[in-house]
Amino acid sequence: MFVLVLFSSVLLSLALPNELFPRGLTLPGLVALVPVFLVVFRARSRRQASRYGALFGAISTAIANYWLAFFGEFSIWTIGGAVVGYTGYNYILFGFLYHISHRDGGIRQKQNALRPLYVAIVWTGYEYLKSVGFLGYPWGLIGYPLAINLHIAQIAEITGVWGVSFLAAYVNAAVAERIAVRDLYTAIRQHRKPEPRQVTALNALQSSVFSVVGRHGVAALLLLAVAGGFGAVRLPTITPTDTVEMLLVQQNVDSWVTGGFPDALDRAQRITVSAILDDREAQRPPVDAVVWSETSLRVPYDRNVEFYRSQPAALPFISFLRALNIPLVTGTPQRAANGRDYHNSAVVIRPDGTITGAYGKQQLVPFAESIPFWNVSAVQDLFRNVIGLSGTWVPGSGSVPLELPLRDGGTLAVGTPICFEDGFGWVPREMVNNGADLLVNLTNNSWSRQDSAQTQHYAAAQLRTIELRTTLVRGTNSGLSGVVDARGVLIAEMPMFESTARRVTVPLYPDTWTLYRAWGDWLGVAMVAGALLLVIVPAVSTRWNRRQGRRRL
């Protein structure tokens, strides 16, 4: 059993973006859960299944998310918290999987007919639940490796990522069911040694069950074909109607170095100026906007204008803006309405230094950017003195797009999800529904030091463009910076962990209705409801039958 758990953990880590395969692998993703599903099917009790599930959660999380160990001085809390959390999550999940797999007391023909479907529903519901709320973390979903196939990924405009996850989970469950049934009948023959007259009956039953199991394989392949066919038809219809020019600046600085902000700001300005001068030498027209990453302005801009009039010394920021004469999209702390706290914000700054609008990050990183009961002195003492975290952000209150003035005199409504917010469907969805013509994500993953941390973030963000049929520009400190169009195609990319800049042509698409844009995570919610029904309905039915039996007596 342990070997199967370890095998699944390794396969899943290979399927997701990793250091060996930066974008991940589709094929391992279609079988990564097969060994661990077999563990559930073969478990002798719910407790045993839960224990192996906890082991799977710990190992797979540690391997796939090892880069969390680089999270500064309190990295033990980030990687340790993730491993402990998913150990607990999977303990509960695998107990649930065992219940729906063995509720008739074993593998029976009736149950074989639906078990792969049940397992896929429960797994997809679990992935949805782990991706929402305060503790939401939409990393490592089983749908990401399958979404590498661009044609299949297009169903996200209907189902969100949850449809892709369901397809992947269903394929895994169907393969596991086929192996489990084969092993069951082999074990029956070896243990019971049936008489000749029983062999005929056993073969007939085996043929019947294999037929049912085979239908799941056919159904899974058919669903994949339908999804791929939809993508093949849909992709040619997605065409841009306009473009804007942007300059993406990737500073690649360590934003956690104490006292290093003036030097980091100077580097960002130098990279920007160098790229603008190159454009002028090539006689290219000016770009519409310059994009810097999350918290590039570490000192709150709106409260420290005098600081920016003198820093950095070589070319003060205010003077840089005037000389640039191009709007700047960047990140900075912004004072909250209560006058005490701060938002992790994205702002658009005009050449004259005025801010056209600000967005405060809403989905904060739990226990890093947001800590429950932070106002309690004992909690503050614990996080400051033991963990090493000195303060927190407060969430923003809305998803109103920012107004970006363009060089032709018009304006562009820009939604600006910050950091890992582009991995959550609800934040960009609200921005687009509020009128955003373009999504610009500002991120700083430089602390991770690993390419896989950057590419796993990209895998989570890519599907937003398909769900909403809106281009996503990723402006990051160290990667993965680039442009993802409304088909989910990375049309411009910058090398990771390098100080550089790149001019990009950003396609703009017409306002397009999608089911995901209208209904959001409807399929994820439906999967959770379906999983609950798989427990509630049989329980109510059993109780009802017992009562009816007592009445007859």
Description:
This protein has helices spanning 2-15, 26-31, 34-42, 46-64, 75-102, 109-112, 115-129, 143-146, 150-153, 156-159, 161-192, 196-234, 261-281, 305-310, 317-324, 377-387, 426-433, 451-468, 515-519, 522-552, and strands at 242-250, 289-291, 328-335, 342-349, 355-360, 402-405, 411-415, 438-443, 472-476, 482-484, 490-493, 500-508. With 553 residues, it is of the alpha/beta class. It has 3 domains: 2-237 and 521-552, no CATH class; 242-361 and 396-518, Carbon-nitrogen hydrolase (Nitrilase/N-carbamoyl-D-aminoacid amidohydrolase, 4-Layer Sandwich); 362-395, no CATH class. The model is unreliable at 105-110 (pLDDT under 50). Helix 1 runs antiparallel to helix 3, helix 3 packs across helix 11 (161-192) and helix 5 (75-102) packs antiparallel against helix 7. It is globular.
